[in-house]
Amino acid sequence: MTAKILVVDDEPLLEYVIQQKFRQKIRAKEFEFLFANNGKQALEKLAENPAIELVLTDINMPEMDGLTLLEKLAEGDRTLKAVVVSAYGDLSNIRTAMNRGAFDFLTKPIDFRDMEIIIQRTLDFVKRTREDLTKLQQTQTQLIQNEKMASIGQLIAGVAHEINNPVSFISGNLDHARNYFKDLLHIINLYQKHCQDNLQEIEAEIEALDLPFILEDLPQMLDSMTEGTDRIRHLSESLRTFSRADSSNRVSFNLHAGIDSTLIILRHRLKGNDNRPEIQVIREYGELPEVQCYPGPLNQVFMNIIANAIDALDESSLKKVKGEIENNLETHPNQITIKTAAIAETDTDRKMAAIRILDNGLGMTAEIQKQIFEHLFTTKPVGQGTGLGLSISRQIIIEKHEGNIKCISSPGEGTEFIIEIPL
Fold first, then answer.
1. What's the CATH architecture for 3-110?
2. Rounded Cα distance, 390 and 352, in Å
């Protein structure tokens, strides 16, 4: 990987000399040098190139000197390191530079062998620091994920248990109620058929009660109550499927059941509201065997991606309503399409289960796509996004399941996430 080095010096000849002295490493793409004439230009270069690992800066420069630049660098990326260059007799400034965070220093006239050694040593330090920081962030993210899934699992398991008991009571009693109704209806029919005594009084009561309506409506009422309990039971099963947290061992799991349980939990967000009609969900499921995986974390990935798709469609709908987008909701309804298929991985021919989740929202720029899986990156307003969802999802798919995840999107064309899990 090419190391990016920013050289900050107001001496025009230095750029030519460095390009010549390090031409082999530049050609081998080990080093890439960028140049600025003063501290102000250096900050602009750093904003344009966040991957810069080392700043090699002179101290005495116009507009913004090296010491002021060091103060500005300390306010930004703490893993970025600076090496200062100054005249041998200027020890006071060198001491000040080291106190302001400089990693090392070089004296003029520059010994380019020393420069190469110091550059390499500094780059090695930055690389180790950034690797350690990445590992720390991954560990923190995993701890957050584990705690989140454990809390969700316990909560959902408790809710599902509490739901199941009363649902079982209602469901069991509905069956008895239906049988009792049939028995009573049979007795009523027999009575009307064979008993003629006090018929006038009975007819008056039948008319007052509107018995024909009751006999017609009661079976429908029982059917609707049965359907309601079935839906509650199905929701309870979906909650339990979603919250499975088999973190210690992989288990066989039906990916379609995981996706469906996620959609049921998000059903309230898919429904229409004041700003848009209902979001259409199109399922195009292929033939997939059960996969050996960690169901709880995998369901969390589905949750993160589908919830993000809903957010994108909400934003798109608002722009359509305001007339900021030409397409309207009648001709271009909001849709989330979920496709699954068994495929062979391009590079290794491994058999994979591919899950593609597409929305027809606003899409995103190439610049945003590069950052969406980064730790704490979010495009949502403050309070609405943590920047952890897709970072955690990437970790779950790539590190925990040895799979692949990628995003395909362009402005105005919607967004597609492709997840691949080894079969």
1. 3-Layer(aba) Sandwich (3.40)
2. 21
Q: Quick one: DSSP state of residue 89? A: T
Is the CATH code 3.30.565.10 the one for domain 246-422? yes
Amino acid at 103: F
Nearest to 68 by CA among 96, 109, 105, 44: 96
157-165: long-range contacts, CB 8 A cutoff, minimum separation 24: 157/240, 157/243, 159/236, 159/239, 160/236, 160/237, 160/239, 160/240, 160/243, 163/232, 163/235, 163/236, 164/233, 164/236
pLDDT digits (tens, 9 = 90+) for 76-108: 777 888 888 887 567 778 788 888 888 888 888
Peptide bond into 109 cis (omega under 30): yes
Q: Where are the domains of the chain?
A: 3-110, 163-241, 246-422
Q: Which strand (E) or helix (H) includes residue 84? A: strand 81-87
**Packing angle of the helix pair 295-321, 211-242 (nearest 10 deg):** 120
Sign of CA dihedral 207, 208, 214, 217: positive
pLDDT digits (tens, 9 = 90+) for 144-203: 666 666 666 666 666 666 677 777 778 778 878 888 888 888 877 777 777 666 567 777
Chain Cα centroid distance, residue 250: 22
Which residues are bridge partners to 359 per DSSP? 336, 415
Residue 98 CA to residue 91 CA, distance in Å, equals: 10
Q: Which residues pair with 357 in a beta bridge?
A: 338, 417
Q: Do residues 58 and 93 lie in contact, with contact meaning Cβ atoms separated by under 8 Å?
A: no
Those residues with Cβ within 8 angstroms of residue 261's Cβ, 6 or more apart along the chain or in another chain: 237, 238, 239, 241, 242, 299
Cα end-to-end span (Å), the chain: 32
